[in-house]
Amino acid sequence: MNYSYCPTCFTPVGTLANPNDPTATTFLALAEVQRMNPTTPVSSSVQPTGIPAMPLPNAVPGIPEDAKQGWNWGAALLTTPWAFRHRVWWAAILGGMNLLLWVFFLVAIAASGNSSSASSSDPSDDTALWLGGIMLAGSGLFWLLKTLYLGLNGNGLAWKTGLYRDVAQMRKVQKVWAGWGFLIAVMTVVIFIAVVAAHS
């Protein structure tokens, strides 16, 4: 693999650290150094050597075909934490908002059970019920779409983060995410059924 950074100091090959920069974070091309100091030849030890160097972090030029294959259960079932870890920010934010909506829904069910004895025919109750139903329908549609998208593309998205040194490591970690995803999904369904059954 042809890299362009020194493995020891991360200086781009073919450049020198700028002597006027105390932070040593800017670099000068060798040609520019020679132009500025024509009487002082640049040592051959700093000429481009082609030494394999470490690539820049997270610089993944493409996604291998074997990395993209398969369904990613961790991304599909454990969307919010998985997306935060893999920097899929839109899924992390929308997934978190969707999760909060369902938590609010469960709390509302529990609260309605405490006030069920006070019967009321207030029309505003019907309006709130309709609005809640529309919100939950939209939430369910979002859940379905994001589950399909992240399940199909999760492996590729995980690889693009640059967190994994090879495909084997990525798949091993994704299996752990999948295991936690299944466990929390089952627990969530059980809690939801228990809350609904207790207040039906």
Description:
The protein has helices at residues 30-36, 65-68, 73-77, 79-85, 89-114, 123-160, 167-198, and strands spanning 15-17, 27-29. It is mainly alpha-helical and 200 residues long. The chain folds into two domains: 1-56, no CATH class; 65-198, no CATH class. The protein has a two-stranded antiparallel sheet with strand order 1-2. Helix 4 runs antiparallel to helix 5 (89-114), helix 5 (89-114) runs antiparallel to helix 6 (123-160) and helix 5 (89-114) runs parallel beside helix 7 (167-198). The radius of gyration is 28 Å and the shape is elongated. Residues 42-60 have low confidence and may be disordered.
How would you summarize the topology of this molecule?
Layout: E1 15-17, E2 27-29, H1 30-36, H2 65-68, H3 73-77, H4 79-85, H5 89-114, H6 123-160, H7 167-198
Antiparallel strand pairs: 1-2
Structural class: mainly alpha
Figure out the total of helices: 7
Please provide the ordered H/E string of secondary-structure elements: EEHHHHHHH
- Report the portion of residues in β strands: under 5%
Please state the average pLDDT score. Answer: 75
Q: What is the CA-based Rg, rounded?
A: 28 Å
Largest sheet: 2 strands, antiparallel
Give the domain tally.
2
Low-pLDDT sequence parts:
42-60
